Amino acid sequence: LVNTVFCDIRDVKSDSSIGIRTIPIVYGVKKTKYFLLAVNTFSGIFVFLAIIAGILPPMAHFVNLLTIFGYYYLIKSLKPNADMTYLCDFVAEGEELVSVPLAILGKVIF
């Protein structure tokens, strides 16, 4: 959710011009960024608690590090001159390149 909606922020002008209603268009870019920060925080806490409760395996701690990755691009996007194309196309979409090694590392260690 965070990744998809984050990339919708970059497309606000084009989506709006053709009548597509996305979260950033309906609620505004600034509110959407803060909403995504809240979702990212909640997700990290939820995964942590699910690990503690035994619902998820301990290796999920490593995958949960993606929460930090999410904070990186979300906080960078709060700057007035943020390069949303770079943050969306390279950083946010690059999560998959980071998640697989984290999952493997978590599996090896645990």
Task: Give the SSE map.
Blueprint: H1 2-10, H2 12-17, H3 23-27, H4 29-52, H5 60-63, H6 66-77, H7 84-92, H8 95-109
Describe the structure.
By secondary structure, the protein is mainly alpha-helical. The chain is 76% helix and 0% strand. The chain has 8 helices and no strands. It has helices at 2-10, 12-17, 23-27, 29-52, 60-63, 66-77, 84-92, 95-109. Helix 1 packs antiparallel against helix 4 (29-52), helix 4 (29-52) packs antiparallel against helix 6 and helix 6 (66-77) runs antiparallel to helix 7. The longest helix has 24 residues, at 29-52. It is elongated. The model has no long low-confidence stretch (mean pLDDT 92).
Name the poorly predicted regions.
none
Strand and helix order: HHHHHHHH
Helix content: over 70%
Which structural class is indicated by helix and strand composition? mainly alpha
Please count the beta strands (DSSP E, at least 2 residues each).
0
- Note the main sheet: none
What is the strand content? Answer: under 5%
Which value, in Å, is the CA radius of gyration? 16 Å
Given the structure, what is the number of helices? 8
Average pLDDT taken over every residue = 92
Shape: elongated
Distance between the termini: 28 Å
